[in-house]
Amino acid sequence: MVRRIRKAEKDVPEPLGKYVYCVIPSPIKDRKSFGNIGFDASEVYTMDYRDLSPVVSDVTYRDYAAIEQEVEIHRNVVEQVMREYSVIPVAYGMAFKSNKLLQIAMSAGYQAMQKALPIVDGKVELGIKVFLPKDLEPMNRAQKEECSADFLQNLLAVSSDSKKLKLFSERLILNSTFLVDKSTMDEFSSQVGKLQEKYHEMKVQYSGPWPAYNFVDIHILGGKRRGFR
């Protein structure tokens, strides 16, 4: 009899936890489903927390290591949500054992999320990298600074903010990301096109739109607080 009870206990499925992909900075009173696009083809849907809605799916609680395929699932969900709503992005791997623990995390991060609202509302992140091709002679420091400053000045005129990212190559002249209002994306793209024509010898990589990862604290629901960059 004891053995049978133990076997039955092993057959009881583990309770599902909650995985958070992002937070929508607007109240959604009715449960909104984005379809079965989450981990293990789970349904992605909204929950309510005061005037915010975390976007979640029900998952078996585990450590979400940074596996490329799973990071891509997280990214795809956020991008799909972003098509309809402004998004407060959160870091990959934000899984909680229970709804109660998620509510506690939302409470702890609520003030920071409130500060993030005006930053992300109606805005997206766009990235620009400017490379000097290998077949061209290297630029001196003054030339690099002049080129970089020209890009920044013109693109800042059609964006709300910018962040300089690491220059990981000697031939990388500019590596920056810009916070752009959705209504001015075409104007921003047009400005990028003009700069590409002006610096036709350069290689320009233009990426996005992305959630505002570089402008808010993506660890807002985790134990580590990095603050706004």
Can you offer a commentary on this structure?
There is one protein chain. This protein has 229 residues and is an alpha+beta fold. It folds into 2 domains: 2-120, no CATH class; 123-210, 2-Layer Sandwich (Alpha-Beta Plaits), CATH 3.30.70.1430. It is built from 5 helices and 10 strands. The chain has helices at residues 2-11, 68-82, 99-120, 141-156, 185-198, and strands spanning 16-24, 33-35, 44-46, 53-60, 88-89, 95-96, 123-131, 161-164, 172-181, 203-210. The strands form 2 sheets. Strands 1, 2, 3, 4, 5 and 6 form a 6-stranded antiparallel sheet that branches. The chain has a 4-stranded antiparallel sheet with strand order 8-9-7-10, with helices on one face. A hairpin with a 7-residue loop joins strand 8 (161-164) and strand 9. The longest helix has 22 residues, at 99-120. The chain is elongated.
The span between the termini is 60 Å
Structural class: alpha+beta
* Regions with little confidence, pLDDT below 50 for 5+ residues: 4-9, 225-229
Compute the CA-based radius of gyration.
22 Å
Largest sheet: 6 strands, antiparallel
Number of strands: 10
Strand content: 25-35%
Helix/strand order, N-terminal first: HEEEEHEEHEHEEHE
Counted by DSSP, the helix tally is: 5
Oligomer: single chain
Envelope shape:
elongated
In helices, the fraction of residues equals 25-40%
Integer count of domains: 2
Average pLDDT, rounded to a whole number, is 89
